[in-house]
Structure formats: C-alpha cells, structure tokens
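Technical appendix A lists one of the benchmark inputs used to test multi-chain prediction within the project. The record comprises two sequence entries:
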Amino acid sequence: MAMKSKHQRLVLAIVAIVAVIGAGLLAASALKDEAAYFYAPNEVKVKGVEPGKAIRLGGMVVTGSLRKEADGVTIAFDVTDGKATVPARFTGIAPDLFREGSGVVAEGAFDKGGTFIATNLLAKHDERYMPRELEGMDYNAATHEMKAEK
Amino acid sequence: MIAELGLAALWLAASLALLQLALAAFGLKQGREDLLGGVRPVAVTQALLVALAFLCLVLLFLRSDMSVLLVAMNSHSAKPWLYKFAGTWGNHEGSMLLWVTVMGVAGAGVALFERTLRRDTHMATLGAQAAISLGFYAFLLFSSNPFARLDPPAPDGQGLNPLLQDPGLAFHPPTLYLGYVGLSVAFSFAVGALMTRNVDAAFARAMRPWVLGAWVLLTLGITAGSYWAYYELGWGGWWFWDPVENASLMPWLAATALLHSVTVLATRDALRAWTVMLAVVAFSMSMVGTFLVRSGILTSVHAFAVDPERGSFILALLAIYIGGALALFGLRVGTVREGEQFEMMSREALLVVNNLLLTVILGVVLIGTLYPLMTEAFGHKVSVGPPYFDRIAGPLALILMLAMIVGPLTRWRRDRAGVVAGRLLWPAIVMLGLVAVLAVTAWGRIGVLPFLGLVVAGGVALGSLIPLTKRNLRRTPLFIWGMVIAHLGCAVSLAGMASESAFNVEKLIAMAPGDSVETAGWTVRFDRVAPIAGDNWTAMQADVSASRGGATARLRPQSRFFTSPPTTTTESAILTKWDGQLYVVLGDRLDDGRWQMRIWWKPFVTLIWLGGVLIALGGVLAIIGRERRGWALKLRQIRAGEFG
C-alpha cells in the first residue's frame, strides 16, 4: 500500500507537521469561543458585556453589601474596582476567605437585569495568595491599573 | 553546622557534575579511555553528595532550625513531624533540591546498571545528564540557596499552607518529580544516541525502562494529585484544568506517546528519528511544567513565591536545553538511518495514530495553558477553562481510546483490514448495545461526551482483554499482561469520569441540627455540630448520619481553622460505597442557626483513580516483564564480582 515506499519517512514527517498545525488551528478556533475574558466593574460599565457571555468579573466585595437570602445558600453582594460597582449573586458555599472588603474573582455571566450570576467564586486561599487578576488592585487607594502594567 | 555541611555538599556535587561533563566530553572527543574511566565513579560520587545535601535539609526541617531562612519561612515547630518532613519539599528551594537529588541518583543508576548500551553512547548519555544537572545546581546555588541563614534566628516559623498539610502532600510532589526526572534520563539517552550516531533498537531497549518508570510515576502522581484536589479542596471536582494540573498532564501525554514509539523502535526498529524527537519533547514538557509551577508566573496553591529572577533563570535553562537539543536533532537527524518500513494496516501504523493523537492533545493543552500568559503580555486578561479543554481534548481522547481497541488486535508489519475488522466484532457489539441501553434509559439527561465516554469505555474494557484470548494465561508474557491491564485501566478510568459527569447528584441546602434531607436514594441527617481541636488547628465538626436501605454511616465534615498561618479550610467527609461516593461539605453558619451543607452523590467516581492505579500497575508489569532477564544477569555479574 501507499506507505510502503522509499518516502515513508517523508510521509511520516508531513503527517506529523499536519497534526501539529491541526492542533494549533483546533486550539485557535476553540479559544475564540471559549476563552473567558476578565472584566473589572468599570470595564463592564464602559465597554458593556452582553448577557449570557461567560466572563470573569474581578474586584473587591463592597463593605456592607453582602446579604444572605432566605434559602440560606444564596448570597448577593456588590463588586467594585473603586470606579464602578456591579451587583452579583452566587448560589453555593462561598470560599473560606470570601468576605466584605476582600478581593474576589467571580466566574459566570450577566443576566438581562444586569446582575452578575456567579457560578464559581475564587477568593484568596490564604494571606499570601491573591487571584492573579487582582494584582495591582488596592481597595483603599482604589487604583485601577489592570491594563497598561508593562 | 548542618546547613553549612549541606551547602558544602551541594557545591561539591555541582563541581563533580562539571567534572563528569568534562570527562565525558573530552574523553569522547579525544578517544581517551583514561578520562572516560572516571565518568562512572564521578557520577556515583556526585549522587552521594547531593543526597547528603538533601538529607541535611530534611534534618533542618525535622529539627525546626529557625536560624535557617527556608525553615523559618515555611515550617513551624508545632507542626506534626510528617509535615515537617514533607515540608522539606513543600517550598521552592527544597523542591528544586529534591529535583537535583533525584536527577543525581538517576544518573548514578544509569552509570551503575546500564550495561547493554554501546560504551560511547553510554558515556555521552552520562555527559548529557551531568549537563542538565549543572543548570539546576547553578539555579540552586546562585538564586535559590536552600541553606541560607537567618540572623538573628526567628522565634518560630511562619508555617506551611494548611491546604498542603495533608498526607497526600508527602508523596504527590516527589512522585511527580521522579517522573519528570525519569524523562530527563530519556532525554539524556536521546542526546547521547544522537551525539554518537547510534539510534537503533538496542538504544531503545536501554531507554525503555526509564521511559516506562517515569511514566508509571507520572501516572501515580497525577492520580494522587487528582484525588488530593478532590477531597482536600472540597469542591467535589477531580480535575480543574488548572495550569498546574496541566503542567503535570503534558509530560504524561508526551511520555505516553514516547513509551509507545519506543516500543516500536525496540521491537521493530522503526520510527527512529520520531522516537528521539518525542524524548526531546517529553523532557521539554517536564521543563515547561517546572517553569510554569516554579517561576511564580501562575498563582495557585502550588506557586510558592513570585520571583521574576527565578522565572527568567528557569526560562533560560529551558531555552538552552531544548534549543540545544533541537539544534542537535536538526544537525544529526540526517545521519539517523531510516528504520524498518511498515504497511498502513499494521500495529506500527496504529501506534503512529496513537502518537499523533497524543501529540495533538498535547498541543491543544499546551496552547490553552500558555494562551492566558501570552495575551497578558499584550495587556488582555483572559482565562481559559474547562469548556475549552473539554470541548477539544474530550473528543480527541475518545478517538484515541477507539484506536486503543484496534491497535493491540493488529499484527506488526502488515495485517489485513478484513481480518482486523473480524476481531473487532465483540467490542462493536458491546458498544452498540451500550448505545441502545443508554439511549433508552438516559437520553436527554446526560451530555454527549459522558454518553460517548460510557460507550467507548465499554468497548475498550472488552477490547483490552481480547489479546488474552487464545493464549495460555500462565504462559502469557508479563509485558502483554502489562499492556492489557494498562488499557483496561484506561477504560475503567474513563467509565468513572463519564459516570461522574453523567449521573452526579448535587444538593445545596441550609440545615439546622436535627434536619434531614433526601437525595439520590440517601437520607442524610444533620445530627449536631460541635467544636474540636487538633495539633495545630481548631474546627467546627458536624455529625452527619447517612442511611440507605437500612444501613447507616457517620460522616464528620469540618470547617477547620489554622493559626499559623491563619487560614480556614473545609475538610470534606467522604463515604465510599461500591457504587460511588457520598461527599459532604460543611459550609458557613447562618444567623438563624442553620448551616450550609453541600451533599453530592457521585456514582462510580472511585473508578477514576482505580483506573489510574491499574494503568500504573500495567506499566510496572511491563517493566518487570521486559527487564527481568537483564536484572538476573546483572545480579549474577555482581555476585561474580565482575561489576563496577
């Protein structure tokens, strides 16, 4: 059959290159759809995010905004970056270090009313851990330097 | 004193690595047998010295010597001894020292026990191994000295991240490291063979036990890591596509491809250049993994310190070794003679399919892992999560599993498609049957991937056993058993994954003591909650009774508070039954006295890790089966005093 030729090695090399390129194309097409972009509340306000699009929302939990709902497992809170504030809801057990005045990254999507429905909350694991996206964000100084940090 | 001794031993070991490289290089270049004769003793001495350095660090941790910076930063005198011990490698410097130690000991193993390889290739391999070690010695000595003193000594240490205070930690990282380093040996073999123009079946047979061993350890490390994340993080998941998990998966994928192609090379003397390339890729992936985890470029429980200097150092090492190896490959690949040829319908061809699919999966995982880092360099913050990986890697893995049914049923060199199809009859019937059963019972309730996963798992489970039919089981070679069991393990693991994602039942509820709830056939009763204290933590512990069909079991999930460093962790409680696990997590206390409770019923979830253990067992059987005769020969040589 075809493989049995003087050029078997060449055929194999070509097949391998095609496979690697295929992997790249496959990855690129999927990344277009599935990569979740990170937004701070101010970016949500300025750029707008369509409802239902999976994103990560990061900021600080506004002090005094955390409320528990009657079912006992849903919480509502506001997320801020010092410039804008976005309401968010989460059903589940919040991470151990999720608290008011502390940093949080929420995965989820906005509903039509503009509330962010979080499916997952990432908070600090311990005092030394900070979600990567929150680096350079200081609640008190309310500086917002997420872009342009060369 | 111990710290100074350790540092001195480390410097000496590093100098010996340099000497080992120089002896091998000049000895081979000038054909000086007197120089080459020194390579093996130097390799063994280097291993002993670096092992001594590591032992010193272990002692410092066990004695909680707070005058050593590393101990003060990462340990605490009140920690249980096991975590003091495991804490030795629960930090950046210690883990790198473990890395070079394993590398040195592996080098000594190659020096002492490798007897079949041509002498010049053997020496070049040891030279390459020394060159890799040197980079890591430099890294330790110049930017990550584990023995640095703290003056004045700290009154007590800062403690170890409580999430890491778990018996799993004692074994998970060293297992993975052993695997990474085993791949470094395969890499050294490949470099040695390229240098001395000696890529053939004998070289593959020498390399194979190292590849298999590394692969077994990576399999066990990943399996253990997955189970650790499952019970320790309390999120109920067993794989998160976290970059650090990917960092361990990528070398495994490359090692899996390599172990199949090295078998083709050893058995049929085909795929020569291909196998060498895969050995380079496999070690590159170990280095990429180390870079991702150790550079602080990622933030997670695994990333210990953010230090750009270290990141650059590892990146430089990565560039030197991989760039060097690829350049060598480019220069020498022309001199590698073409191996034996094979037909399109042959086991070789199917193993090429295996290799290609694994490579594509590897590429997809690599791109998905690095993409956020690349976009961040351009100012966009992006995260790539499970939807991406599941969507691409899932279907590819299923195709790979289908090829896994066909491969072992196909002959080497050439086979007839019609005959192979006949051998596939029973797996096909089983899969069609499963499609019918699942379509009737679960259509619309489970996703496409879990559905196909269950079907393919059934086919692979049966197909993996077919090579045993028509054989006398007691005379079947051990390596055949190894293949059968490893493939069966893949089916078992896949079945567990598919079952967990298809039939998982979750209940999230606020309960007061005395309340009970029904879920997935279980009655779960929240009896009481009370405080409890451990060695270095306090906790709120819930008493939960779970009953099904008259039998009752107790579960005790906790919410734990550690004082050094101050941290809260959730300790899930898991009840294991033959058909799955009941997983209970205690959440926060509400103002009205109720407690948040999260309850999962995960049918057959344990199969995931059982499969992983089977896969590793298959690898162990393959090593024993292939190497037994060689070992016996070496033992006789040692007894006869001809050795060393």
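The two ends of chain B are 34 Å apart (CA to CA). The mean pLDDT of chain B is 88. Comparable benchmark entries are summarised in Table A2.
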